[in-house]
Every structure is written in structure tokens, then in C-alpha cells.
User: Fold this.
Amino acid sequence: MSTFTAPVPGGTTPTPVTLSAPVPDLRFKDDPLLRIWLPAGTQIGAFATGAIARNADPITGLPAAPNASCSLFQLSPLPPMNAAAFRRIPGGLPVQLVLVAGTAGPVPAADDLLAAGQLLITAPAGGAFLAFAFQDRLCRDPLSAAEAIAASGATGADWTQYVTALAAMPGVRNLRMLDHVGRPLNAGTIQIAIDGGPPASITPADGDTGIAVPAASTATVTFASAANPIVAGEAGTGSFGAGLPLAPGQRVAQLLDAADWLADRTPGVAVSRWNADSLIEPIQEGNPYFAALVADLRLAKPNGKAQLAGWAFVKGSQADDTIDWPLIPGDASTTYLNLVKELKGAGVDLKMLVNHFLKFDSAALDDFPELGGFLFASYASLIPGQVLLKMQTDPAGYLVGFVLLAGAAAYLSSGKALDTIKSKLEYSQAMMDALTAFDPGIATWTPYAATFGDNPLVQHPPTVLGHTIDDISHTGVYHQKYVTIRRADGSYVAYLGGIDINNDRPDTTIHRAKKPFHDVQVRVTGPAIKDLVRSYQERAKLHGAQWPIDPSEVAALPPAGPHLVQIARTYFKVGDGSVTPPLPFATGGEDTPVRTMLNAFRQARDFIYIEDQYFTPPDNYVQALHDAAATCTGPLFITMPYQTDQPYGGVRRSDVLNYLQSAWGGRLYTGTPLRRFMHEVPGLTTNLGRMRLAGSLTAGAASCDLTPVAHVPLPPFWAFCGNELLLVVAPLGPPSVTGFQTVEIVRASPGWWGAEPVAHPSGTPVLAVQVPPIYVHAKVTVVDDVFLFAGSSNINRRGLYHDGEIDSFTISQHLKGDPRNPARLLRSWLMAEHAGLSAAMGEALFADPRSAIPYLTKRSWYQGAPRQPLSFFGSLPPSVSLGTSDTVGGWILFSLVGAAMQAAQNDIWPLFTDPTSSLDPSAAKGPHYP
Assistant:
């Protein structure tokens, strides 16, 4: 039996509808489609076995009468009926859409299941309009749509008759031009040559060029009005900067001007604006990245080269800093130190550039004793959040962690303080000591040059609560994480992204690490590597280090794939009056990453997907994202940690989200991933966390009695009471003389974690658990499935205007026709991960991002959906004036320092947490944002 059946009987004469019209409702709402009209009485069947959806409320949008009432039927096929056939269809799963005038009868009903060939509807007196939509959302003409389905190779004779009938329609073979999303173009100059003949210049109208392409002919399409054109066909073909010959008979091309998306490089910067014919391969999570990295490093044996630059190289494991951790779990040969020794023993020329966090301007830290009370209170305010959420933290900047811990030190005025601080907060110190003992020439400390004097938001010298800061003058870091390798066979490979050689990074997409950590790295091959090599050389030369791979070696790398890749960096700009020398390779700083992101938001037409560690962006980023709501018809997804991990970050993030909500409304989907619960680890007391109710618990109660007392952990903690999840907040008084402890509890409300408060009898088991947030460290943005950002820049001023960062921006030269399009692949994988599904399921279900919305918004944590709204814990993350704690921590801070916490915001936020440079156009407005 054929997978597909022609939707109309043989002999039916369809009529083309020459102008596209938007779908009025259901899944493809507002997408323009070209339809055919079928006369009254035509029996329209299901083209495949699938489920029916239909509009619930009256709608308008009939092509022949846009204001008339109509009904829409949508048949979505079931891929398991013939998965192989569906995978072969260009554009992904096709969906059959039938529009009829008036209100159709009750049959078929929504959620009906129809077999292939079964009657869907008989066209009423006004006829019916038929179209097919695909997951890539390209506005194909009816014949192209039918031919795409026929490409599965599983069609029967009736489908061939249907295709023949469509081919006989007038104008159906006209060449159509679509934008990057797949919507009809109405602007631009296109040159078209048929079979190598003289080109004709046209401007398309509703995508139609008016030029027919015979079945066996080849059309060459040139986007003449674009500065840097990309032309892509349906068959996984494309070109950059030149015309594209379409496959014989093909009549659909997508167009994009790369100059509208990828910003020109900052003046004075030598890296390329972009490199064509490269290949970007996304990698989710630390374990897969480290496995790929180890494999490529070992392919450098013998006598290859490797150079690594990182924010941190950590030697000891999380559980025991005296034991090294392996990059590949269970393989002791892959501890970083063992790997370096193995590579050096095989003649590999390996060098490292290591970020140097701490740089002091005085031998004793006399700034900090006078601020000790405030700083200790700041540190104390973090503790409740750490206990309750089992947080995975990564400092907003090295100086934030330094300042907080410095206040707790009792001997900061002594010279020993510097040694203590360096041993605890110079993350790479132990690794550097071990590497130096093995080979002093391997690794070089690289302190970042930016000083307080380069930050236009602070006075010089800066103050905190009226106390001058003069022990330290540097706040910036090299936050870059990238590797370039020349393998033994002479080929080159590189990696960049958010993942350091750090003991908290190993994890997988199911996040079973005790402190779950989510991140992304990309593998780079092809010509784009030359800008990573140049970037390493520039930094190495500045700090007197060696660079094993010289830029001359990679000046002309062969093509590796169909991706246009921009390698862009963030570097600070020297401030007016500053004594800091400018960076020789970025004399005016570098802000290409943020300008490219703003360009992408201006071009967004379908959706925007963002993952970020902080999401406390500068004003121009926020405004561009806000304004994009007017031209982008789909959703804005933002995934972030539950709390910002920045002092005062919650204040900024709440303001930003509220402002974006005012433009995007119900199309804004923010969320945070939370892993499934872990059993609380018993302490010295046997069965700690294994309890039972000492009395009955009613559905509305806000407290309960737990026994035995020796098994009750110190609140706050999560607990399952039967199958209901509770939050145990605090003890209520001392234990009773009869052997139970009364505790205050918080229970779910609508929209929280999905549990329903119910009554529980005395003796119900109670089990203390952990519900750890998955720490989002990824720095990723996808726009319209054609643009991918992945790198080291966090979305804040520090990451976009101040620190040393390195990022990749990718557009496939085949646009949506690329079967390995990294933008769509990574976005669908990430959505699948956050929905609790496999990557393969994500590719199948979420090729169209809008289809992921119910999975990400309507499935509860109880149903295995890790990504939940920020309101999972009952409210938006609180705006604590200092620290990342909950309201308990805020209360501790307030009780200790009172009004000083608000006053300190003006000093700490722009100085330590989120510094900037004069490249930031909003810097003149001061440290506060509207």
C-alpha cells in the first residue's frame, strides 16, 4: 500500500490561486501559502494516515473572500506509518490544509484519525482551497509541493496523475523567489538565465518572476541587488557571492544578503569579516565535547601541533582537589596533565594561554578591612540560595568572588592574604604549577589589560560605600575558550564555545551530574580556522608566549563545508585619560559580536531562540530585541538559570524581561531547566532524610509533623510526601517530647511545579530530595534557523563590550536546504533536551520550532519536562539587592547592613559585576537603566 494517496480523484481539474495568502489558524497560522481551488462536489481525501485538527472558533481568511467566514482542516500525517519515506521528503513532514467557505459540518472532528485515501471533506458550494505546508515553511507552488512529496519514492499511480494535473495549470512552472524564512519576495533585483541563455533582470511580485522553467531546464539565479548574496535551492545546494544553477526543473530559490546579518569588523581589527566554505558542528554538553577534543588531540600524534586558550584549566576534581579528574570518565589517561605528557612525548608542539584572574596593585589589601562588615554580609546572603537550590555557580567576574571572600578573611592587612586568595581563587594555579614542573615552556599566564580607568561608568579612583579602592585596578578577564589543532596528517580542526577545561563541566544531556551543567561548544573546520589561529597569535605575541601554528600555515585552507562563518571577538576600548596601552590587535577595541547580534534581530521574521548564563543585556541589545517583536511573527524563547549568579543581576534581569514582555506578550517564553530529583545523601545519622508523617496532613495545611527527629535534615529542603512534592522551609519550634518535629511547608499552587496538594494520613512516607537547577552556561542564539551564534560572550556588558571573548556566527550557504544546517540542528537538539527528549526526536518533532511550544510550555516537571517557567518556585526570581539568594538571604543582608545594600548597588554593579568600555553606546547614560 502506498504511503501517500492523491488528495483528489483522477480527472479533477484544479485551478491555481495566483497570489499567496496567509494561513488563518492552527499550526501554520500567518504563513503564506499558494493554493489550488477545487470545484464544488470534489471529494478531498487524506493524502496520508494522520490526525485532523480544525479551527474551534469562526475565522476569516479565504483567498477568494478574505473577510468571509471559513473553516480550516489540517491533516498531520503520522511518520511511523513509513518513517523512511517521510525522511526523504525535502522540507520535512508535509501537512495537508483545506479551507472551505462558511462553517463546515461536524465531520471530520478535531482529533479524528483518518487513513490514507479516506474522505476528508467534500467541497461545498463555494468550492475548497487545498495547500501543503512543510516543516521548513517554504512557500512552494502546488506543483513543487507535490513533487517534493513524490521525491519520497513511495507514491502510487494516483499521485502521478495528481502531479500531471497540477503541471497542466497555467503559470505553475514560473520561477519563484523566497526570502530566508521561505516567504515570497517583493523586492530586489534578480537575474535569471535559462539553460545558460542571456540573463533577464526582474523584481519578483509575491515571489513570482514570471519566467517559466521547463521540466528539463536549468535556471541560474543571481541575487544582483545584494552586496554579499546567498542563493539556495531546495536540493541542498547554494552559493555565496555568485549565481546558483538550480537542479533541472527546480523552480524555488531562497535569497539572503549576508551583509544584512554579519556586521563588518571593527576598524583596526585584522580578522576577516567572514570565511565561506567552512563547517560548524555543534556539540551539546561537556562529556561529548571532551571526547571529541581528546580524539582530535591524539590525532596530532606524532609531531603535530596544538594550542589552547582558556578562562580556566582546573586540575583537581570537584569531590577532592588532590585527585585529578579525567576528560573522559573512567579513563585516567585523559586527565589533562596525563594527556599533555602523552602528546609532548609524541613530539606534539603544545602551548597554552591561561587567563590570569588576580592582579593586585599593593602588597597588603588595606581596602578591605574597612569594608569587611559589608562584604561579609554580602557573602552570607548567598548561603540560603546555595542550601535550598544546590546551586551550581560560576562567578560573574573573578573580582566579585574575590571581593565577597575577601570580607570573610580575618587577616587581609597581612601579606599572607594575597597567597591565600590566589590559592583559592586563581582557578588554574594548581594546573600551572604542575605544567611548569613538567615543562616551563608549555603555559603562559595572560592577565587582561583593562583597568577601572577604561570603564566610563565609574569614577577614578573608584569607591565602594565611600571607601576608595586602590589595592586593585583591573577587573577584566580573557574569557575565551578555544583550541586549534594541526593533526599528524596535516589537516586542521578547532573548537570554541563556553566549555573550559574545568572540573564542573563534564555532563550529558540527561544531566545526572550532582551539580548539573549545560553548555555548548562548536567544532570548526575549513577556512574559518585562520581567524582562530590569528587570534591566538595576537594574544600570545602580546604576552610573550609562543604560537605553534602560524597564520601563514592556514592562509588557504581547502573548503570543508557549506557554512559562512564569522569569527568575532570582544575587546575593551581604552578610556579617555586612561594609562592603559591599547591592545595592538584591537586599538579601538572590538564589538563585532554585539553588532552582528543586533543585525540578526533586525532581520528576524520567524523566531528567536536564546540561551544565556546571565541575560542581563545592555540597552541597545534590549531595544533591538524589543523592536524585533514588530517584524518577527513567531516566538521569542529565552532559556537561562533560575537565578542570575550576579550581585544585583536579578534586578536588571527582571527589568529586561518585563520590558520584552510589553512587546512580545504571549509570544515570550522564558524558562529554566531543572533536573529530575536526586535522593538526599545520608549524613552520619543513619537514614537522614527518610521520614514519615507523625500526624495526618490535610490538603490545605501549611505545616506538618515529621518523625523520627534524627532523620529530619536541616531545612530548607525538598521532600516527597507520598507522591506530593513539598518544600520544607523551616522548623517551627523545638522537637516535641513525643518525638516529632513540626516544620513549615510550601505546597504547589497552579502554575508551579505540577503537584496537587492532597490529604495524607499519619505514617505516610516522607523522603527528602534535591531538585537541582541545571546551570545554564551556554551562550547560544538562533534566528529563523539560518543564523547561529555560539561562543564565549555572555549577554551582558562585560561579555559584549569589556572582557576578552571569542565567538562564532554561522549562516549556511544552503540556507534551509542544508540537511546539516547547524542552526536548525542545534536549536532542535536543545529544545529536545529541555523537553526531556532525545536529539533524534528533536530533529523529527521540532524541525519547525513552533511545534515545540506545547512540549516546552504545557508539560509539567512531574511529566519529565526539565525546562519550566521561571515561576516554578512560586514567583519570578526575587530582586535581591545583592547576591543571588532567595528572600531569606536578602533579609540577612538587610539586617546586617541595612540601607547600605541599596547604596552599594551604584558602586558594585558597574565596577565589579558588569563593567563596560566606551564602545558601549549606553555608557553615557550611567550605571542605571530605564
